[in-house]
Specification:
alpha/beta, 10-stranded parallel β-sheet, single chain, two-stranded antiparallel ribbon, disordered N terminus
């Protein structure tokens, strides 16, 4: 098993002009067999390896605070089985129009004052139109002027959209792969896996950083969970920001009755993401409210160095802000901006 840990880990080439279809590297850095072998390690051994990689590349005491705001809620035509914003599901989510810049400014100021350094804006579109992108660009510029890192998640992008957002000051674009390719069709039928890869390619081509992760606990097999991490790790380059979401079961969605994932499997997923993507910010995202402090602490030990901070994620709950500050204090951690110790390459 030592060969898995000793395998050289180097940063893929930095963002630059790519084709519109981003895809796994021709020669994968991480085979499925290697990723599965990591998942199968004893938990103490896996955590040791993940913490070793984390310490070699980041200050292990720094945790990024990011805030997520739904700037346009509900009414989405997609059929993502986990999503309460899909118009076809009766989840109690009311559709709303895009927020005004003044409203977003107030929310961003509040997030900054509470300690957030990244502000992400989400809109429930399948694919925004040109006029939508222009309006969101105004929101991006508003937030950027406050000195915050900016991120947006708006659905699939067409040619030119990422460039417009970049010019407004967008730092990151979030577009999750959600699952391994062979499980994707069980969760979503209204778009293809390649549609997601194409949007990531457009983001890369524009020189915007990629925020891309997935959701675990949707009924995928352990092999498919490993497949998600392998897919992410073999993107060329792998994402700078990797949100790992634990399914939040929402009444009215097809996954409302899905059996809960063993929390240690979530910790394993964080650890394997850290090992295979050593320079990424690995974020605890949806589902933290259900984890409890002990599991979150294990996730930080496994290499998570970012959390969504605030009492709401789009339409689902999140631990309140004071609870997060208290937990970090108890663990001897501090909020800050984790930067790679050796940005030219992973150790």
């Amino acid at each position: 098993m030592s060969s898995v840990f000793e395998q050289p880990v180097t940063l893929r080439r930095p963002p630059g002009p790519l084709s519109n279809a981003i895809a796994p590297a021709a020669a994968p850095r991480w085979s499925m067999q290697d990723v599965q072998a990591l998942f199968e390690l004893s938990l103490p051994e896996l955590l040791y390896r993940a913490q070793t990689v984390h310490r070699a590349n980041f200050d292990p005491t720094l945790i990024e605070f990011a805030t997520l705001l739904s700037v346009k809620t509900g009414g989405c035509p997609e059929d993502c089985g986990y999503c309460p914003q899909a118009a076809r599901y009766d989840t109690g989510v009311q559709a709303s129009k895009l927020m005004d810049p003044e409203e977003v400014l107030v929310a961003a100021q509040r997030a900054r004052d509470a300690g957030a350094t990244r502000f992400c804006m989400g809109a429930a579109w399948r694919a925004p139109k040109d006029r939508d992108i222009e309006k969101v660009a105004e929101l991006v510029a508003t937030v950027k002027a406050l000195g915050l890192e900016t991120c947006a998640t708006l659905g699939m992008l067409e040619d030119g959209h990422a460039e417009t957002l970049r010019d407004a000051g967008l730092d990151y674009y979030n577009h999750n792969l959600d699952s391994a390719p062979d499980f994707y069709g069980d969760i979503i039928t209204t778009r293809d896996y390649q549609d997601r890869l194409d949007t990531l390619g457009r983001v890369r081509q524009a020189g915007v950083k990629v925020c891309c992760g997935g959701i675990v606990g949707m009924g995928e097999s352990p092999t498919q969970r490993a497949g998600l991490i392998a897919q992410l790790a073999n993107l060329d380059p792998y994402p700078e920001s990797v949100p790992i979401n634990h399914l939040v079961r929402v009444q009215g969605t097809p996954l409302a009755e899905q059996a809960p994932l063993d929390p240690f499997e979530f910790v394993r997923t964080i650890a394997v993401a850290r090992i295979t993507m050593p320079l990424a910010r690995v974020r605890l995202s949806a589902g933290r409210q259900q984890m409890g402090d002990a599991i979150q602490a294990l996730c930080f030990l496994a290499g998570a160095n970012s959390i969504f901070y605030g009492d709401k994620l789009l339409t689902t709950g999140n631990p309140d802000t004071q609870a997060d500050l208290d937990l970090l204090q108890r663990l001897g951690l501090r909020r800050g901006q984790p930067e790679p110790l050796n940005p030219q390459g992973a150790v």
